[in-house]
């Protein structure tokens, strides 16, 4: 019975905290009405949350239409701690520190660093150390570190990474042994979906497609992240687009990402121009100059992307799809063209949008994951300041 009471008390505390977090300011009375908990329970829980420095009393609100005493308003104490997100790309490392309301504190991004199982722990240690001084005066300091992995991750275990060898080590164990901060490992695309769900959209069913060196999809179903068996859902980069097509590191042939990932598109462009030094920006520039080869390449990319998105809609039936790709950001006409190809009764009503979070999407998702785990809440409704 004691355990049951404790569990109920924890659940009620999470319900109250969620209400306070997802309202910029709210009174005890409003929390009571919203949650159905009596005012005595609300007062007890609020007192504990204030003592734990997780919420603040912010001032006096307006009286109700019936008059009476003006209420004292409550708000999440965003300065109780900070969350650190790290995105380990194949040729870049990005990191971002936020307060507990998702507000940006500091961010960094470097390119040209090759991530390997030999150097990854030291790299992460250095990143954490570089942010530590920003959290020393906060009650809970750094509340969690979430690391975005470009590969299959399940319960903090890296199962497969096609373009770097981090699946050859137990990264979670190695980091947990030397860093006294909660560590979370998650698939990069899953984190972008969590970011869209937390910071951009109120839809309960959405898909976020990440197109970088590979292609992955993060899936939110009924308001929760859907990972599938052993974290393998959303690996759309390895669905077959062309049987007997190009070889893929996964062992298959003709995989989606061999035709539509940014890495594959740039490699095709380099081959056409016989220049291995060319970049995605060179491709965009060439496209904008109406270079025939570049136009053909982008048109084929758009066609293949349309096929992949169509399959995605038919499989998961999302309310909305977000695309996160530097190529579609740099060539704005791509997504409208894809939308125009989605004309069947199955897919024509599914809106397709460019992610407003852009290259920071995985980092915003990382901070949301750490905050949810720290505060023990299921749902966050944050917004990114323009």
What is this structure, in a nutshell?
The chain is an alpha/beta fold.
Topology (elements, then pairings):
Layout lengths: L1 H20 L4 E2 H8 L3 H13 L3 E6 L11 E5 L5 E7 L3 E8 L4 E8 L8 H13 L9 E8 L2 E3 L2 E4 L10 H8 L4 E5 H13 L5 E6 L3 E7 L2 E3 L30 H4 L1 H12 L6 H9 L3 H25 L3 E5 L1 H5 L3 H8 L10 E3 L6 H15 L11
Parallel strand pairs: 4-7, 7-10, 11-14, 14-15
Antiparallel strand pairs: 1-3, 2-3, 4-5, 5-6, 8-9, 11-12, 12-13
Main attributes of the structure:
about 375 residues; Nucleotidyltransferase, domain 5; 3 domains; 13 helices; 15 strands; globular
The succession of helices and strands, N to C, reads HEHHEEEEEHEEEHEHEEEHHHHEHHEH
> What's the rounded overall pLDDT mean?
93
Number of alpha- plus pi-helical segments = 13
Distance between the termini: 49 Å
Helix/strand class: alpha/beta
| Cα radius of gyration in angstroms | 23 Å
Largest sheet, if any? 5 strands, mixed
Give the tally of β-strands. Answer: 15
State the domain count.
3
Shape from CA axes?
A: globular
Please identify, by name, the CATH architecture of the largest domain. Answer: 2-Layer Sandwich
Q: Indicate the low-confidence ranges by residue numbers.
A: none
